[in-house]
């Protein structure tokens, strides 16, 4: 699990725990270098899309820091058993 934290452009009014919105950025992704010279990527531009109450975009546009827990498990759990059967005997 990761925490996705977004800050408003002005001094925050507070902090809200949110869910992810379905927005996208209209402009660009900018490559930058950290203090050790390693690259990282900054999503720059104007977010466009859903601004439903309780989402990260909604909170930030109203001046709050948004904290969203994000799960990265992309495993197709429903296919694990079938795949095991398909691959049975393929590898020692």
What's the number of structural domains? 1
Number of strands: 7
Alpha carbon gyration radius = 19 Å
What is the helix fraction of residues, given as a range? 10-25%
- Major sheet strand order: 1-7-2
Q: Give the uncertain stretches in residue-range form.
A: none
Strand fraction band? 25-35%
Oligomer: single chain
Taking the sheet with the most strands, its summary is:
3 strands, mixed
- DSSP summary: helix tally: 2
Distance N to C terminus: 33 Å
Query: Helix- and strand-based class?
Result: alpha+beta
Give the helices and strands as they follow along the chain.
EEEEEEHEH
Q: What is the residue-mean pLDDT, rounded to a whole number?
A: 88
Explain what this protein looks like in three dimensions.
By secondary structure, the protein is an alpha+beta fold. The protein has one domain. Helices cover 15% and strands 33% of the residues. It is built from two helices and seven strands; from the N terminus they run ββββββαβα. It has helices at residues 56-61, 80-87, and strands at 2-6, 15-17, 24-25, 28-33, 39-44, 47-48, 65-70. The protein has a three-stranded mixed beta sheet. Strands 3-6 form a two-stranded antiparallel ribbon. Strands 4-5 form a two-stranded antiparallel sheet. The radius of gyration is 19 Å and the shape is elongated. The two termini are 33 Å apart. The relative contact order is 0.30. The model has no long low-confidence stretch (mean pLDDT 88). This is 5'-nucleotidase. InterPro entries: SurE-like_sf. It catalyses: a ribonucleoside 5'-phosphate + H2O = a ribonucleoside + phosphate. Its EC number is 3.1.3.5. GO terms for molecular function: 5'-nucleotidase activity.
